Amino acid sequence: MRPSTLTLVALAAMLACSPPEPEGTSSSPIVGGKPDDSAGPTVAILRCTGTCVFSPYLNATEICSGTLIGPNLVLTARHCVAQEVGVEGGVLCSSSTFGEAYPADNFVVTPAKDVFEGGPWFFAREVDVTGAPGDLECGNDLAVLHLRSSYVGAPPAAVRVAAPAVKNEIYSAVGYGDDLAGGLGYRHRRDGLKIACVGTECKLLG
Questions:
Q1: Could you count the other beta carbons within 10 Å of the beta carbon of residue 68?
Q2: DSSP result, 41-70
Q3: Distance from first CA to last CA of the chain, Å, rounded?
Q4: Is the overall model pTM greater than 0.70, yes or no?
Q5: Which of 10, 92, 145, 175 has the fewest CB atoms within 10 Å, counting from its CB?
Q6: Contact of 26 with 173, CB cutoff 8 Å
Q7: Among 126-130, 189-193, 198-202, whose mean pLDDT is lowest?
Q8: 3-class DSSP state of 22
């Protein structure tokens, strides 16, 4: 997997959160932006080196972002929960593929604005991906984590299915990104972003 992968919240093609401006994601980290202290549906996903344990510190090796779409369902990128093949020099849409998904007990989720706050923690029960190992990354980068218990501290995002994403649509991105000052692991927000491509057009760019 890509080191220090910090994805954003949810696909612009699928989500419309409250407030009514679209909430968006990318497989790139949020760079810059402003701290986001809201109790919204964005959560941090930590992948551990094996089963997640606190002994006394969590054995986390990677951070991603996800979006609650139900009290115990987190939408995220498949590259956050599955092995990647052929990405050493970056993702190539023509050849980079997915391997097997990591076991569910390798993941723990927190809604805290800073992953170093100490929780609360919600452990994954199941990793759900579409397709199979060998799928090309581009066009297949979606996954859902099923949590063992529900988080009710924020309303889930509303999944947008009636209208697809449109090129040049404006969206906001929320995720656990890089503030360009050495700060990682706490929630950032960037507004006024624009969708650069949709569907097969993105493969041409990759």
A1: 28
A2: SEEEEEEESSS--BSSSB-EEEEEEEEEEE
A3: 18
A4: yes
A5: 92
A6: yes
A7: 198-202
A8: coil
